[in-house]
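Action item from last week, closing it out:
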Amino acid sequence: MDRYHYTPDMIPKRPLTRLEAHHFAAAAPNRWPYTREKHRLLSEFARTNEMQTTTRGFDLSTLAAPPGPRPRSSKAGVPPVSGFDHVQYFRRYRLPVAILTEPYEPEEHLEDIREHAETLGLLVHTPPNLYASFHFPGWTGCILITRPDFGRVLWLDDQLDFETQGLVT
C-alpha cells in the first residue's frame, strides 16, 4: 500500500466528517463520487465567500491589477512560483478575486507563495488546519490568494473542524 491508497478495512468504523469521507473517496477506485463532492465543496466555499468558480485562469499579476480593462495575458494561469498545484480560480462580479492552490507538502511552498504574493500586494490565507483542502483533504494544503480588498475569508465548517494530516485513523 502506498500513502495515497486505502483498502476498505482501513476506513475507521466511526462516523466520518464530510472532509474525512471526501478523503477516502479520493483514494477509491471509482472517482466519480469524489469528483462530484469536490465540486460541491468548492461551489459551497465560493457561495459562502460571494464568489463564482471559473475555468478561465489568470495569473497573480492579473489578480493584483486594478479593476478595469486590461489586455489579455498570454500567460494566464501560469504558476509564477512553486506550489501552484490543483489550482482553482474565483471571480466576483466577473473580476478576478482569488486563486486557490492545493499543493502536496504545502509547508514547503507556503513561504514562497506568501513572499511572491506580498510583492504584488496580495494576501495569502489558510484555514486553521492547512490540510483542510478540497482536492485531497489530509494530503494537500489549502492556500487562498486574494486581492487586498477581498474582505474576511469564511472557511467552511468542515474545514474548521478538520483535524487530520496524512493517514486518517
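Closing note: The helical segments are 18-26, 32-48, 60-64, 106-119, 157-161.
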